[in-house]
Amino acid sequence: MESALQISQLITNIIIILLFLCIIVGIIKVLGQLRRTSEKFDEITGSIKDFQNSMKPVIEKASDLLDTSKNIAKKIDDNVDKLKTVTDNLKTVADNVIEFEEKLRSKIEPPVLDTIASYSAIVKGVKAFVEKFKSFRASDNSLYDDEFEYGHDEDNYSVEIEAHNRKIDKEVEDLNFELKEVRKKIEALKK
Questions:
Q1: DSSP codes, 122-142
Q2: pTM surpassing 0.70?
Q3: What is the SS3 assignment for 150?
Q4: How many domains does the chain contain in total?
Q5: Which helix H or strand E contains 12, and what residues bound it?
Q6: Which is nearest to 136 in space by CA: 162, 155, 164?
Q7: pLDDT digits 0-9 by tens, 117-146
Q8: Among 71-75, 91-95, 128-132, 141-145, where is mean pLDDT lowest?
Q9: What is the pLDDT of residues 34-51, one digit of tens each?
Q10: Which of 3, 42, 127, 149 is deepest in the core (most CB within 10 A)?
């Protein structure tokens, strides 16, 4: 039995040696795989470093763009503040102009209206005077007729009446001309 024990020992040793060989082959394969994984990891690390290096300019440009955007935003804010100030100033100026216009109107309007009223009264007075003068002239001719009946020289009297009538007509024309001028001025003031 010794020999069966030796053979079983030998088979066991061979199996153990085969198992060790399998383990060693497995370890070698695992080590090979680890080495390939390490190489891939190194490649990936190199790629990441290359990517980082290639991204630095992009990141710097993005940073510059961000800074420029901040500067533009700040300038826009400054310009908006300036625009608001200008708008406030324009509003103040507009308010001042309106206030000035109201003061000017309150100072000028009463004298202008008084002047228009005065001109209107003058026109009415002159018109009434002309009407009265015309009616007086008509009644004045009848007075001359009465005097003529009392024995004045008819030819001389007729010449005097004509001269007197021309003088009155000239005065009426002058008054009408003056009235037209006053009306024009009143119309101009009303506008």
A1: HHHHHHHHHHHHHHHHHHHHH
A2: no
A3: coil
A4: 1
A5: helix 2-149
A6: 164
A7: 777 777 777 777 777 777 766 655 554 444
A8: 141-145
A9: 999 999 999 999 999 888
A10: 127
